[in-house]
Amino acid sequence: MKTPRIYVDTSVVGGCFDPEFAPWSNGLVEDFRAGRFIPVLSDLLSLELEGAPQHVRTLHSELLTISSERVTASDAALELLSLYETRSVLGPKYRADMLHIALATVADVDVLVSWNFKHIVRFDKIRLFNAANLEQGYRQLAIHSPREVTTYGNDRDQGS
Asked: Can you tell me the distance from the alpha carbon of 74 to that of 57, in angstroms, rounded to the nearest whole number?
């Protein structure tokens, strides 16, 4: 069985230092360190973290050493982004959020993780993104919060 590839958006890295999200974001980082999942990181993530506090950038640097999977804004991703924009899946102000979805879709990851419940981890938006993805010949993108993906908090001894 192949190791699942997980696209990480900016909220997940920052979530490692937010008391509300830290247990699951850090649990996911531990999963990456243990090799249970492969982090897929984008140039957009790097760009968005440029102005972040040093401890956030340090964690990002560590994630870059864990994985060689990098995603860049290819023509295919930009075409998919353009379709999301044409369909007004999100407003123009949230172009970066749509680009994360397009990058993850084109990279054919197993799941995108995010704490962005307003624009990304939202049933109605996921359906709109995936309708466009399918129309363009991509498979549906699974989108979840780190809490739903990490093995943190799972009781492995009881098989659950």
From this structure: 24
C-alpha 145: how far from chain center = 9
pTM: 0.92
Q: What's the rounded Cα separation, in Å, for the pair 156 and 158?
A: 5
Question: How would you write 114-142 as a 3-class SS string?
Answer: CCCCCCCCCHHHHHHHHHHHHHCCCCCCC
Instruction: Write down the residue that tokens 């659950």 correspond to.
Output: 160
Cα-Cα-Cα-Cα torsion 104, 1, 29, 102, nearest 10 degrees, comes to 0
Residue type, 49: L
pLDDT tens profile 29-44: 999 999 999 999 999 9
